[in-house]
Specification:
It contains 4 helices and 2 strands, in the order H-H-H-E-H-E. By secondary structure, it is mainly α. Helix 1 runs antiparallel to helix 2. The chain has a two-stranded parallel sheet with strand order 1-2. The chain binds zinc ion.
Length: 238
């Protein structure tokens, strides 16, 4: 019966479509994951730069403080070695001003260090995130490269089976099928009629006289979607 042949062809076509979609899914997923890696890498670089800047600021303030403390120590010595009271008083004023300035600077430096230290975990978090995404990408690449030859072998096998099945089509079906398979794609050229009389391709009702012709083994296309109609095994109208 012709419906059996069409049903067999349709099944093989659907399986081929599935294999092909699996083949294209891998590279799509890999591209997506690669772009995520890129985004996180960029974010990591920015965050590292930000941390570096905070760290440099803190270090600069610390160095400044060290220098100023050395100056202060020198002034204190000068003060003790002052030759007269006038010089002593002048140095004493200077020392007092320096002490105030240094204490502010010390607070500043401490604050800057704390800020840098507080920021440091941000870098670690992104590093970890990047590592995870890279691992996922690697796994996807590995599993896909294993999957590809298996899928390709299946495609070869099913393509052979399709050719064999297509040989069983009588002339009036073959030309129509080839034309539709070319224009709509193999899987889309055929549709089964459900027991509720729906076209399996477009879900529209197939008129009963169309169904009768299909059952009689005539080439009939769905009037709304244009697919070649067939009835599944054991078909009865509800
Ligand atoms: Zn239809």
């Amino acid at each position: 019966m012709i419906s059996e042949v069409l049903s067999e062809i349709h099944l093989i076509q659907r399986q081929l479509a599935d294999f092909n979609s699996r083949l294209s899914r891998g590279p799509k997923l890999i591209r997506l994951q690669e772009s995520t890696v890129k985004q996180i890498t960029a974010r990591l670089e920015e965050t590292r730069a930000e941390y570096h800047q905070l760290y440099q600021q803190a270090k600069f303030k610390e160095e400044q403080l060290t220098k100023r403390e050395a100056t202060l120590a020198r002034r204190k010595t000068q003060m003790q070695e002052a030759k007269n009271n006038k010089e002593f008083q002048a140095l004493k004023l200077q020392v007092s001003a320096d002490e105030t300035a240094n204490s502010t600077l010390a607070e500043d430096a401490l604050e800057a260090i704390e800020k840098a230290e507080k920021f440091a975990p941000n870098v670690a978090v992104i590093e970890q995130e990047l590592q995870q995404v890279n691992e996922t990408l690697k796994k996807t690449q590995e599993s896909f490269s294993k999957e590809v030859p298996v899928i390709q072998a299946s495609i070869t096998q099913y393509s052979k089976r399709l050719k064999e099945a297509e040989k069983k089509l009588p002339g009036e079906f073959l030309n129509l099928y080839i034309r539709l398979a070319r224009s709509m794609g193999g899987e889309q050229a055929l549709a089964s009629i459900s027991s509720e009389q729906f076209c399996g391709g477009c879900r529209q009702i197939v008129p009963i006289n169309f169904i009768a012709q299909v059952v009689q083994g005539k080439p009939v296309t769905c009037k709304s979607c244009g697919r070649i109609l067939y009835v599944p095994e054991g078909f009865t109208v509800k």
